[in-house]
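Re-run with default settings, no changes from the original entry. Doing this only to confirm the output is reproducible before filing.
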Amino acid sequence: MKIIYPAIFYQDKKCKGFYVEFPDLPGCLTEGEDLEESYAMAEEALGLYLASRLDAGLETKAPSPFGKLKSKEGIVCYISADPGKYRKNGRSIKKTLTIPEWLNTEAEKTGVNFSAVLQEALRLKLEI
């Protein structure tokens, strides 16, 4: 599930790059050598920040309402990221499941990775 937060892009006059901050998310900062790289880095920074908060069980401040955030020195841009893509809770657990024998046979013939399929299906079901 993608989540959107406002970010402020500032141009660094010394090196021609940009640095980005998320005012609603203390410590969520990044930078890039040009606008394209800065935007990509902002998506990654947001995703990693939100994923780390989720993995730690911490609450995250809601984004500022659309249009409310202003900046005299930078440009406000809305960034979306999918924290599920960045979640790193590395501990795996074993699950036992039951499927029809014919389905198991067909899946094994094609070399299906059951764990990968289950993870993908769960992400789609949970919209994460």
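The mean pLDDT is 90. Residues 35-55 form the longest helix (21 residues).
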